């Protein structure tokens, strides 16, 4: 790790909580360095769309815009993407639950999740069915998703 790079402090426990289908709510969260930190800070490549999904949630928590861009399909990545968790109107992410992880074929997968957050003191949920593709470079990337009412 380079001490000169400025970035948000890393938590001990991983913000994603190691979310997985059928994970018990009482499950102990994994350590950040052993979970999403491998991908966000250490350059390891997620082997599944589920691992990528978790690490992208954690990147939102930490404000890692460059990681979000790098893991977003070029065709759908917003050009002005900038996540600042310290901004006044930024959502405060409270937790991630994975409802479904479906490997469609070798290069396509679907992850359904619910992310809980607060904005301006109001609690909300983001329930999304996300699509992921694996490119020829072997990397999974987020394509887009359908937000469903819960
Ligand atoms: Zn994690």
UniProtKB/TrEMBL annotation:
NCBIfam families: PRK01842.1. It comes from the Bacteria. The lineage of its organism: Bacteria, Pseudomonadati, Pseudomonadota, Betaproteobacteria, Burkholderiales. This is YchJ family protein. Pfam families: YchJ_M-like (PF17775). Residues 48-145 form the YchJ-like middle NTF2-like domain. SUPFAM superfamilies: NTF2-like (SSF54427).
